[in-house]
Amino acid sequence: MLNKSIKNDFPVLVNNPDLCYLDSGATSLKIKAVIDKMKEYYEYYGVNIHRGVYQLSHQATTEYEETRDVVARFINAKPEEIIYTKGTTNALNMVASILSKTLSSGDEIIVSELEHHSSVLPWQHIAAEKGLMLRYVDLTVDGRITLENFKATISPKTKVVAITYVSNVMGYITPLKEIIQEAHKVGAVVIVDAAQAAPHIKIDVKDLDCDFLAFSAHKMLGPTGFGILYGKMRILDYLDPYEYGGDMNDDVCLFEATYRDVPYKYEAGTMPIAEAIAFKEAIKYIEKIKIDKIHEHEKALIAYAMPKLLAIKGVEVYNPTTDTGIIAFNIKGVHPHDAATLFDQNNVALRAGHHCAQLITKWLGVSGTLRASFYLYNTIEDVDRFLEAVKATVSFFERIG
Ligand SMILES: Cc1ncc(COP(=O)(O)O)c(C=O)c1O
Questions:
Q1: Percentage, residues of the chain above pLDDT 90
Q2: What are the phi and psi torsion angles at 98 (to 5°)?
Q3: What topology does CATH give the domain 33-288?
Q4: What integer is the mean pLDDT of 312-324?
Q5: What architecture is domain 4-24+289-400?
Q6: Does the beta carbon of 61 lie inside 6 Å of ligand 1?
Q7: Mean pLDDT for the stretch of residues 261-288
Q8: Which mutation among 93, 115, 116, 172 tests ligand 1's pocket best, with the greatest number of atoms within 8 A of CB?
Q9: Where are the chain's structural domains?
C-alpha cells in the first residue's frame, strides 16, 4: 500500500481534513506541484508560446514543449505524435471528425455499451450523416468486452473501432492488445478512450499498437481543460486539420494555405498554455510513485472493501470483479441521488447518476448507480468511512421505509 503521507501533497485534502473523497473517476484532486507550476507561469513568464521572439516567449515555449516529451515518455510515443487538446471529449470528437472524411456509406464502426458518451455520440452523429453502420460488441453477463465477442462483431466492412480501455462505470480493463490485432487484420483504425486508464494503469501505445488514444489531464492529478490525443504519425500526417486558424499554418495565400507539420497542424489558436505546462508535474509525480504501484494500491483497497460491501444487506454491487478502483452499486429501492445526499452528510463524496455512460446503466437495468472511485490518496480509513456511510444510508432508508 502507498504511504498515507501522500495526502499532504493535495491541498484540497489538507484544507478539508475530514473529507473522504471517492469521486476521482469524475476528476482527481490536484497536487501542489501542479498548482504551483500554473502560478509560476502566470507570475513569471505568462506570455504566448511559439509566436514571440523575445526571451519570455522562449521560456514559455520551452516549458510548454517539455510536457510533450514527458507525455511521450509516459505512454511510449514520439513527442511529435502527442497532440494537445482540451481533454478526452475534445480529442475523441477531433478524431471522429478528421477520420469521417475517409468513410463512406455502408462502412461499419464498432463501439460498445461500456463507452462514455464522448466515445459513442460523435460516431452516432457521423453514422447518421454518412450512412455508416454502428455495431455494438455483445457484453458478457458481467458486462465485459471479450476478444471472442469482438471477433463475432468485426467484419471486412469494419473501418473504425472506438473503444474504452477502462470503463468509467464497471472499472473493467478491456483486452485491447488482442482486439487491436484483430481490428488491424481487416484494416480498421482503432481509437482508444483512455480517460480512466491513463491515471491508473501502464499505457504503452507501441505495444498496444493502437492508432489513436485519448486522455484528460484533470483525471490524473493535472489541470482541467487539457488533454492528450496520441496518433500514429503516418495517419496524422495524411489526415486534414481539425480546426483552421493561427499557429497551425505555414504559407497563407488568397485561396489556399499550407499547414505546419504534425502535431502543430492539429493545434490551432492559443492553447491552454498554463495547463499544458503544469501537466508535466502531474506525470512526473505519477512516474515517481510508479503507475503499477498506484494500480496495486487501488486493487488492495478494493480487495479490502468488496467483501465487506457485499456482506451489507440491502446493497447491490454491479461490478464485484472490478479491475480498477471503481465500485458501481446501489442501495436497493433508493434512488442514487437520494443515497448520495446521505453520503454527503457523512462527508463522503461520491458520484450518483449515469456517469455520462447511459448505455451501460441501461444495460444494467437501472436509471443510475452510485460510484465510489478510489485513487492513490485514498486509505483503508477512507474505505472504513465509506462502509460506515453505506451502513448508515441503508439503515436510514430502512427506518423511513
Ligand atoms: C471513460 C471516459 N471517457 C471520456 C471521458 C470524458 O473526459 P473529459 O470530460 O475530461 O473530456 C470521461 C470522463 O468522465 C470518462 O470517464
A1: 99
A2: -75, -30
A3: Aspartate Aminotransferase; domain 2 (3.40.640)
A4: 98
A5: Alpha-Beta Complex (3.90)
A6: no
A7: 97
A8: 116
A9: 4-24+289-400, 33-288
Tens-digit pLDDT profile for residues 120-137: 999 999 999 999 999 999
d(CA 165, CA 153): 18
Cβ–Cβ < 8 Å for 31, 10: yes
Mean pLDDT of the chain: 97
Give the residue, out of 23, 168, 229, 373, with the most ligand 1 atoms within 8 A of its beta carbon, to mutate for a pocket test.
Answer: 168
> What are residue 382's phi and psi, to 5 degrees?
-65, -40
CB 279 within 8 A of CB 222: yes
- Residues marked as catalytic: 356
Q: What is the per-residue pLDDT across 355-383, written as a single tens digit (0 to 9) for each?
A: 999 999 999 999 999 999 999 999 999 99
Q: Which of 397, 345, 25 is nearest to 200 (CA)?
A: 25
Residues 6+ apart with CB under 8 A from 66: 277, 280
- Decide the pairing of beta strands 189-193 and 212-216: parallel
Nearest-atom number in ligand 1 for the CA of 115 is 1
Rounded (5°) CA angle 148-149-152: 95
- Closest residue CA from atom 9 of ligand 1: 89
Cell representation of residue 20: 473522504
- Ligand 1 binding pocket includes 229 (Cβ within 6 Å): no
Closest ligand 1 atom to residue 164 Cα is: 1
- Regarding the beta carbon of 168 and ligand 1, being less than 6 Å apart is answered yes
User: To test ligand 1's pocket by mutation, which of 88, 203, 360 has the most ligand atoms within 8 angstroms of CB?
Assistant: 88
Percent of the chain predicted with pLDDT > 70? 100
* 193 C-beta closer than 6 A to ligand 1: yes
Do the domains at 4-24+289-400 and 33-288 have one common CATH topology? Answer: no
pLDDT in tens, 9-58: 999 999 999 999 999 999 999 999 999 999 999 999 999 999 778 999 99
Strand order in the sheet with 351-353: 315-317, 326-331, 369-373, 351-353
93 lines ligand 1 (CB under 6 A): no
Buried b (16+ CB within 10 A) or exposed e, 39-65: ebbeeebebbbbeeeeeebebbbebbe
